[in-house]
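Q: Hi! First time doing this. I have a protein sequence and I read that you can turn it into a structure. Is that right? Here it is:
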Amino acid sequence: MKYFIIILTIASLGSIAGGFIFDTDYSQKMIGFGVVGLFLFVFPLFAYYRWKDKDFRDYMLTKENLDKMRENEKHKF
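A: Yes, that's right. Below is the predicted 3D structure, encoded as structure tokens:
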């Protein structure tokens, strides 16, 4: 999955760069496909890959988590 995301990122950035560098009839389409590739494929896959084993409740502001943060602040000083 990691290498697939890297390949898609390089392909999308290459398409965007190619659209800016090469002056052809379809250069704007190359830029557009590169942007669409980044935002519809690369970013969601990257987010899934990074967050698949995480528990979302650890990042919510619940009373227990607020109490933990307050305890950690007391121990720092």
